[in-house]
Amino acid sequence: MLIAVAIAVDGLGFAAWLFLSSVGLTLIYGVMRILNIAHGGFYALGAYSSAWAIGLYTQTGNTIALTYLIIPVAALVAGVVAGLLIERGILRFMYGRDEVLMVLVTYAIFLILEDVTKLIWGTESYVSYQPAYWLGTIDVFGIPYTVYKFMIIGVALLVGLTLLIVLNKTRTGKLLLVVIEDREVSSALGINVALFFTVTFVVGATLGALGGALAAPEISVSPGISADIIIMAFAVIVIGGMGSIGGAMIGALIVGLARAASVHLYPPAELFSIYLVMAAVLAVKPYGLFALAEGRKI
Amino acid sequence: MIRNLDRTEITLLAGIPFLIACGLLLPQWVVNYIQVSLGTGLVALGVMIQMRAGLVSFGQGLYFCIGGYTAGLAGKFFGISDIFVLLLMGIATSVVISGVLGILIRRYREIFFAMLTMAVSMILFGMLSSSEELGSTDGFNLLPPTYLGWSPEGEVATFTLYIATVLPAIFCAIVLNRYLRSPMGYVNEAIRENELRVEYLGTSAHQAVHITYMIAAAVSSIGGVLWALSLGHVDPEMTNWTTSGQFVFVAILSGTGSIIAPLVGTFLLEILRVYAVDISPNTWQMILGTVMLLIIIFLPKGLWSLVERKRNPKQPKQPEPSAKVPGE
Amino acid sequence: MTTILETKNLERTFGAVVAASDINITIKEGEILGVIGSNGAGKTTFVNMVTGYLTPSSGQILYRGQDITGKPTREITKLGICRSFQIPQLFLELSVIDNALIALTIAKQTRPVLLRPAIDEKLRAEAMEVLARFGIEQWAEQEITTLPQGVRKLVDIAMATVSKPDLLFLDEPTSGVSADEKMEIMRVLIDALKSTNTAVLFIEHDMEIVETFSPRVAAFYEGTILADGPTAEVLANDKVREYVIGGEFHRKATSEEAVS
To answer: Using a CB-CB distance cutoff of 8 angstroms, which residues of chain B are in contact with residue A93?
Structure first.
């Protein structure tokens, strides 16, 4: 029973973190058909800038509450700057190219971002436990959990719901669905497709950075986190069906619970349980759980 | 047999005495780089032949690692150090594993192929990293190789291993060149262009992809065995997706035009890395990324296309502006 | 003449949509059959089912008495049924001769061949012969992407004939080709195919072409066959005139406007 609770709570915690880190990836793929390996770089940029800013701020000894504002601001700055530079500077010249080629392009950007983070923040690790520590812990069936973990779960829910509402209920969201359906027709209808792409990419990048920024107080921020997160994010969105926000939620839950289960039941499996689940899902549903059907070719 | 050799194969055969001469004349550290690059170069070749079918494997490190660990484990648990046995074991293991995995993987194309190959390689990465017995993330050391009972020492051992790396590498390259020119090789090229038509011409695209996947696996595994013996060490990084990414990088850089390009490309990259990391340790990946972007944008067929262009200066004929349907 | 293809009550549904139902067609050796019908009448669906691209929801397809229902495309091709496509399905970034060479290579490969070189002078000559039969040899070295639509159509059809099929489906062989070239292309085609005694079923919107080249016509309407018989009879049929040809005249008028 205790283990079941632990798996559930830890799983939810992992899932929330995974969802925040991968929803931007699925959003960008859904709208722009770009499987963005550089998303891992956005995550790292968010994590570094948040950890670095928290470090600076806590040294000044000012009010604690403001630290929680630093996290989203750091994510916003990192995401918008990097997202805009990459979309305007590189990607917009390559729209309409083959999807696999775009993977290679974003892989190249990923490599560049890796070194950009190293050049800005060096190679040592940053630890900014304070925001997680200050909120204290609460007990669930006698197991102590940081309140911060529940805060992340809350933020993940909020982000997920906001995205679903914006996409399905607002005018902008509906226009975006038109863009996804048919790029050329929507251009002809007078929709500014280029603007939608830029905004989508920047929002996606910022979400990735937010995932990193929120994770920063719970992890040691060091080189390599971008490579680690991107493959987990891939697993999440592939399981859910690429381009589906709801799918990313389900994917994150499945991966989160699988990982929590292996942590508690069979620790050596922690690292590969995720991919095992992914391979298993794909063996049954080749394009993920919520993938769109393909049209007739001839 | 000899008459059937094409220019690439003759170049490769001529490469054997050339590489042996290099081994005798060049400073040892350069020879070491040649040796290591032949190992990783074979994996890049594995990536490249899949690219011919339009498939980008972001998990080729899987078979690189399988080769290395097979050689390592054979020594660790069974005391086997004979290079011929190790190579055969590496081939056998990779053929069996790719044969089984291929049943799943051959159904996928484009980004799904990339992601699934990556996922599978990460399963192995996770398993090896958490295996205390196999030294987890640190890996373990290999036995020095022997040759049909002969176990050389000192400089002789170094040179023998070098020769024992050169020969299988060249052999693999020739076999792959043959494969690309064979009917099955053309089927792969056709799959990249139009899979529907391939099926309508009467052959199975899945089968062709499966065969290519297995051949790429076997060659990568041979590369893994040779690489591991050269370094005397294996660790799970071999199957991390970032390692696979480097193989993809080399394949992009050299293009799919020639079998020789990935082998040469790997070596040049290794040498470049030595200097670049020395001068500025934190900009190497940035250089790689920038070069990759430039290649994709300006030389989509890889650097080798420059060599080809020089060789065949005549440009492809442009369509005549008055081109009309025949029969007029 | 012996019957080579017979379909029995062939039906295909997509969800609630019935794309084809009650399709009963018999084709004899060396026969030429025109198929008419407006878009969405089920013509291509029928071809897709016989060639294994789509599995029929129900019904049976017999080829020389053998049940081939639901067999994969590649096996059906090997049995001797080939097709061309409305939108040419070619290896776009390769030259015409390379397209033909690959087609020949695959057609000749009975089991996987991994190490023997595929292409020699003999095969190259054979490929040129295939191209010459369709009058496209002068385009041999050009990449498909640089070719006009009419030539692409012919390459597409040439590729479908390399395995010397006994039954060939041509899906709108003259679509996308300017009106004055249509006749000529059909003439080249039918001449090339008659010499090999290949049975041909071609889908066509132009009644003049149907009348000229096909002694027999089947008219499709909303997924079923409205009429099937000698061309003059079918084209004079009241229902066909009302539902099929009426629609064609309308279509022809609009498409010609679009061209001019």
So the answer is: 297
C48 in contact with chain A, both atoms CB, cutoff 8 A: yes
Contacting C with CB below 8 Å, chain B residues are: 4, 6, 175, 178-179, 181-187, 189-190, 193-194, 196-204, 207-208, 211, 215, 316-319, 323-328
Banded model confidence at residue A52, pLDDT cuts 50, 70, 90: confident
Q: What is the pLDDT of residue B311?
A: 56
Is C207 in the same domain as C131? no
C106 vs B198: CB contact, 8 Å cut-off? yes
Domain that holds residue C76: 3-80+165-259
Q: Do A275 and B119 touch (CB under 8 A)?
A: yes
User: Is the predicted pLDDT of residue A287 greater than 90, yes or no?
Assistant: no
Domain of C252, CATH number, reads: 3.40.50.300
Structure tokens at A283: 């063996």
In the predicted model, what is the mean pLDDT of residues A64-87?
A: 86
Checking if the pLDDT of A34 tops 60, the result is yes
| Within a domain: C121 | yes
CB neighbour list of residue C94: distance below 8 Å, 6 or more residues apart = B189, B193, C102, C143, C144
Q: Of C136, C163, C190, which closes a domain?
A: C163
What's the CA gap between B143 and B141, in Å, rounded?
Answer: 7
Write down the pTM of the prediction: 0.87
- Give me the residues paired with residue C11 across strands: C58
Q: pLDDT by residue (tens digit) across C13-65? A: 887 788 888 888 888 888 888 888 887 788 888 888 888 888 888 888 888 88
**B7 with B257: CB under 8 angstroms?**
no
Q: Best residue in B196, B197, B314, B328 to probe C by mutation, most C CBs within 10 Å?
A: B197
For chain C, how many structural domains are there in total?
2
> Within a domain: residue C226?
yes
Beta bridge partners of C203: C35, C171
Whether residue A143 is contained in a domain is answered as yes
Residue A262 in any domain: the answer is no
**pLDDT reading at A258 higher than 50:** yes
Per 3-state DSSP, what percentage of chain C is helix, strand, and coil (rounded to 5)?
45, 25, 35
Domain identity same for C184 and C232: yes
Domain that holds residue A167: 33-236
How far off is chain B from A75, nearest CA to CA, in Å?
A: 23
Report mean pLDDT in 10-residue bins for chain C, 260 residues: 84 82 86 84 86 87 86 88 88 87 85 76 84 82 84 87 87 81 82 83 85 86 83 78 66 45
Q: Tell whether C192 and C65 lie within a shared domain.
A: yes
Using the structure block, give the residue that is written with the tokens 């995720």: A274
Query: Interface pTM (ipTM) of the complex?
Result: 0.87
The contact set of A with C (CB < 8 A) is 298
Is B122 a residue whose pLDDT tops 60?
yes
Closest-CA distance of chain C to residue B216, Å: 13
Q: Are A111 and B286 in contact (CB under 8 A)?
A: yes
Does the beta carbon of B247 lie under 8 angstroms from any beta carbon of chain A? Answer: no
Number of domains in chain A: 1
